[in-house]
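User: Structure tokens for this complex, please. No commentary.
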Amino acid sequence: MENIQNSISEPVSEELTLVRAAKAGDIQAFEELVKRYDRNVFRIAQHITQNREDAEDVVQEAFLKAYSNLEQFQEQSKFYTWLVRIAVNEALMKLRRRRPERTVSLDQDVQTEEDSIPREVADWSPNPEQQFTQAELRDVLSKTIQGLPAGFRTVFVLRDVEGLSTEETAQTLGLSVPAVKSRLLRARLQLRERLSKYFKRQADGENER
Amino acid sequence: MNCSDFLKELTDYLDGTLDERTKSELDEHLAWCHNCFVICNTTRKTIEIYRDSEVYELPEDLRTRLRSAIIKKCAAHKHSKGGASEK
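Assistant:
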């Protein structure tokens, strides 16, 4: 079976050169790092906060925080995972501020195993995404992932969308590897269940909208 | 192996991180269990769709605006600290 995990494979030495230059005060070197990862940070932030303005703020705050704390960056780890950790924390803070009435915690299981038991077992159309326009598809995917608890959403995004390894995801979020695996499985199964409503094969070949 | 055992291993199965023996047990289960076969395929598709569909892309104009704001703030920070390398 094909390995579906993707990863960011940047040459580490080149990146370290940029980080060291930025540490020494070279702002252009830091700008290169911003260009390299701003899209990733934005995606992660918007997935967690589910709010465009908050995501924009998180991008700015995360990079500024990274810049002003560069000295604390340990070169044994990847700059990207260090940056993601800062961004995730900023995004969770935004979420807590916006939804103080709801507990937003990464280390809390807010659901029971029941929520992840597959009920929908109808197969999907061969290329379900092609039955929607880009805008419709984005809308479906965005609405679907919004329904997941923040902790599950965050693990899914880091692991499956951004391509961090299970170990990197665990380190970034301060969770154990089994905790990441458990959340990832449940996130994947719950998204699958909800997407089935849109993507399942219809008897007459027509998708319900 | 029953369906519930299969589900427990699904994440490692999809990520290709299982040992050969467990993987072949799962393959065998998939060969006769249609429900697990469908769940496995549609879960894989779920991951692929999220990974490939660019749900939240950063538009170029916003990207440029954010980057210039970041660099401006970093420069101000550097100025106030007398350089990023000094505390």
